[in-house]
Design a protein that fits this description.
single chain, about 325 residues, alpha/beta, FAD/NAD(P)-binding domain, 2 domains, 7-stranded mixed β-sheet, 5-stranded parallel β-sheet, 19 strands, elongated
Length: about 325
């Protein structure tokens, strides 16, 4: 294949929005779908907080609509995973599935971040059917229900506190007897009368019946006994892993691995390489915010290819 103007890695809300804007700008983007086409939203059932859908829309349907919209304007899609990139000189080279190599004048990285899972029996089967990794996305569906939040960091405290707006009771489950969360976040959670605590227990299995979560089986680290914590929803809040390992440190990231972009645009430390979505946003992690950065990345690429983009990235001035 010849040299592309822009290659987009990833097909979540950020990547597909970037594809729509880049295609409409006649950049003929090549979009590498990744090993999870559509991103994490394909694991979500109803989406009620994406503008324009007053009656909600299913996650897979929203992603499919975005893909079709990008295709309509000329975006080309290939199924596969970007396994390596060479960003040392232009044109950049992208390797897909370890064998197929493509060259490009510019690159948009929108590979997202994967939620860390517990890795216990019954968890993956119940994902999207009672097991969730996003309180903001799914909390509304657990109104007046008992739920558990697994985790001991700030994100777990934040998720649990948010979920008390809907749930009748929230139990925080942590495998240690002390929390990693900051003092202020701990105090906020402990002051909430809807939050209960179950410390020093290890989750061992998600229990479901007729495709409905019934509870979380835990092992008490003190008594060595196993019991079931009844709940209709289980929220896993033990962090995320940005999908940046394939970059092999060619782009500046923070200590966790999130790509650092300019505070003024979506430029990375490598001129001609841009990033959008959850791979550069560890805070919001919403479909609408990801889509917004995808729009910005495509517009930045257009200016870059025209020669009018100012690369002002600097580590000291970035977030």
């Amino acid at each position: 294949m010849g040299e592309h103007k822009v290659i987009i890695l990833g097909t979540g809300p950020a990547g597909l929005t970037a594809a729509i804007y880049a295609a409409r700008a006649n950049l003929n983007p090549l979009v590498v779908e990744g090993n999870e086409p559509g991103g994490q939203l394909t694991l979500t059932t109803e989406i009620e907080n994406f503008p324009g859908f007053p009656d909600a829309i299913m996650g897979p349907e929203l992603m499919d609509n975005m893909r079709k919209q990008a295709e309509r304007f000329g975006a080309e899609f290939i199924f596969g995973l970007a396994t390596a990139v060479d960003l040392h000189e232009r044109p950049f080279r992208v390797t897909v599935n370890e064998t197929d190599e493509f060259s490009t004048q510019s690159l948009i990285i929108s590979t997202g971040a994967s939620a860390k899972m517990l890795g216990i029996p019954g968890e993956s089967e119940a994902l999207g059917h009672g097991v969730s990794t996003c309180a903001t996305c799914d909390g509304f569906f657990f109104r007046d229900k008992k739920i558990v939040v697994v985790g001991g960091g700030d994100s777990a405290m934040e998720e649990a506190t948010f979920l008390t707006k809907f749930a009748s009771e929230v139990t925080i489950i942590h495998r240690r007897d002390t929390l990693r969360a900051s003092k202020v976040m701990q105090e906020r959670a402990r002051d909430n009368p809807k939050i209960k605590w179950l410390m020093n227990v290890t989750p061992v299995a998600v229990k479901s019946e007729n495709n409905q979560v019934k509870g979380l089986e835990v092992h008490d680290n003190d008594t060595q006994k196993t019991r079931l914590v009844e709940a209709e929803g289980i929220f896993v809040a033990i962090g995320h892993n940005p999908n940046t390992a394939f970059l092999k440190a060619q782009v500046e990231t923070d200590k966790v691995g999130y790509i650092i972009c300019s505070p003024h645009n979506t430029a990375t430390s490598v001129e001609g390489v841009f990033a959008c979505g959850d791979v550069m946003d560890s805070h919001y992690r919403q479909a609408i915010t990801a889509a917004g950065t995808g729009c910005r990345a495509a517009m930045d690429v257009e200016k870059y290819l025209e020669g009018s983009f100012v690369h002002d990235w600097s580590l000291s001035g970035s977030h």
